[in-house]
Design a protein that fits this description.
By secondary structure, this protein is mainly alpha-helical. The chain has one domain: Orthogonal Bundle (TerB-like), CATH 1.10.3680. It is 70% helix and 0% strand. Helix 2 runs antiparallel to helix 3 (58-72), helix 2 packs across helix 4 (76-92) and helix 2 (33-50) packs across helix 5. 34% of the residues are buried. Residues 12-29 have low confidence and may be disordered.
Amino acid sequence: MREAIRKFFDDHMRAPADGGDTSSEPAPRPANDADRRVQVAACALLIELAYADDEFSPAERMHLEAVVRRHFGLDVETAGKLLALAAEKQAAAIDLYQFTSLIRDSYDLGQKTLLAEIMWGLIMADGKIAAREAYLLRKIANLLDLKPGYLSVARNRVENDD
């Protein structure tokens, strides 16, 4: 797994050699191995959450792709490849712990709260919150050691941004 992640980021996270990129897409930020693993873990959790209600709607898919590009500063192609790698890791996982433990140990409270906001935004993207989605989000938050009050604040922020 580590080698696949390293290869992905080596291939796709380097700045252009000529430095002359004039596209409107954000320039990829260099990431170390720990950052790379955390990015894959965060995306795997988002994908798990997107499928929680057995329907990964087009609105959820668009929201997920946009938030990954914005949050990690990636171009469209790189974000797509990151999500594909994360989906592969998520499909092979037997539980969420391998992802949540990495994020719990790497993210501070602010980053965890931001991730909770992103998760709430994802499950609200299709206009409805399925019981399984809300349950899974609470479970993930618990595994991240994110207190319920912070989860509520994150949900309120997402609801008030609409």
